[in-house]
Every structure is written in structure tokens, then in C-alpha cells.
């Protein structure tokens, strides 16, 4: 059908267009304030950057250069009295009020409860996750850290210490290997327990471990490192991180000689 010419009378039978009422603008949702992440590129720091990425929470990285002693500044100690990274400040904490949290395990649990992700609601399933989270906090984390220290950074090579912590790491990798039999992840489903461990296990060479001895752990590690959120989280660009020489006596004095 041909279109009516512009000169067509307004009294034509064509129904009058209804006047459009101006749309009432919906109240815009207040932009979510980012969580402040006090961070340095370490396995403990990775735990929280991974969780924030996995949960798609907005966050802002505040570098804490532990090689220069930033962790002892009063403003950081007000958040993390143990002078360790990571720590967070959530401006939208319980009741809508800000909250600061230190200790990586506590932060993971908090973010899991806040988002309902990677931390189950049922008590039985949560116990499974908590067991393996605490296994990381009290086992693979500190023991791998000691193996790492005595194998690479100690100014004096102490055979007893190297053997002691390397052997304990080997035992713990074995525990993880057995746990992953018939399971894709430590607590069955992907959880904060896996998030807590991946940064440490990714440094297996520094622990004196041959990962081929632990094929299930190797498969688990490859699965986690292939996750886009994990990849983004462990490649955060922190200024000056590549300039830190862990064998510099001044750096070691800051990191290893605290009283």
C-alpha cells in the first residue's frame, strides 16, 4: 500500500496517535562501591584476588609493598594488626556499614557468605569446605612457605631444615592426591578451599616437588589455572613487583627478621 502523502487531512480516518506520556525514569541503582583489596603478589594475596574475580565483585587494588615495609605503616596496621597481607575493607558490610577483615581464610569465608558463592549454605557441605580450608591455612601454606624459604632464601643452607620441610610438603601433596581420588575438587564442588590452595600448589617446584608423582594434583592444578578468573587474578599488574630481589639483604631484613 502506498504511503499517504504529507498533505493528507488531519481529519482522515486514521486513528490519532496516542500522546506518549513521558517515561518516568527509574531510580538508578547506586553504583556499588568497590572493595578495597590490600594486596601483594603472593599465594596468600592470590586467594582474595581470585575470589573477587570469581564472584565478579568490584574491587580496587591497594598495593602493600612488603619488601619495603609498607605492612608496618599505621594505616595498614589499623586494618591488619598482624602486619600481613591480604586484607580488605568492604564499604558495604553487614548492615550497610564498612567492615575491615584480615587473615585470608576469614576473608574467603566472609566473601562466600556475602555472595553465596563457592561456600555452601548447608552445614554438612560447609564443614567439608572448612576442613580443607583449614588444612591449607595450617598445613600446605606454612609448610610450603618454610620449604620455599630454606630451599631458596636462607643465607645458610641447612640440610636438616631443607629435608624437614621438603618431606612435609611431600606428605601434604600426598594427602591432597588421595583426597582428589574420585573428586574434581577438594570438597567435591569448586569452593574457597580450592581457591585457597591454588597459589601455593602452583609453586610446586619451589617446594622440591615433582608434580608427576601426583597426577590428580597436577590435573586439579591445570583445571584451576585454566579458569579465566584465576588467570586474571594471578596476573594483576602490581607496580615494582618485578624489581624486588628476594636475595637482597635489605629485603630479607624486612621480611625475615621481624621480632
User: How much β-strand is present in the residues?
Assistant: 5-15%
Number of domains: 2
Mean pLDDT: 88
**Principal-axis shape:** globular
**CATH fold naming of the largest domain:** Glutaredoxin
* Topology order in helix (H) and strand (E) letters: EHEHEEHHHHHHH
The share of residues in helices is: 40-55%
- Tally of alpha and pi helices: 9
Largest sheet: 4 strands, mixed
Short description:
The chain is 44% helix and 7% strand. By secondary structure, the chain is of the alpha+beta class.
Question: Explain this structure to me?
Answer:
This protein is α+β, with helices and mostly antiparallel strands and 259 residues long. The protein folds into 2 domains: 35-117 and 236-256, Glutaredoxin; 123-226, Glutathione S-transferase Yfyf (Class Pi), Chain A, domain 2, CATH 1.20.1050. Helix content is 44%, strand content 7%. Strands 2-1-3-4 form a 4-stranded mixed β-sheet, covered by helices on one side. β1, α1 and β2 form a beta-alpha-beta unit. The N and C termini lie far apart (90 Å).
Secondary-structure map:
Layout: E1 35-39, H1 43-54, E2 59-63, H2 74-77, E3 87-90, E4 99-102, H3 104-115, H4 123-153, H5 159-179, H6 192-201, H7 215-225, H8 228-233, H9 249-256
Parallel strand pairs: 1-2
Antiparallel strand pairs: 1-3, 3-4
Helix pairs in contact: 1-3, 1-6, 4-5, 4-6, 6-7
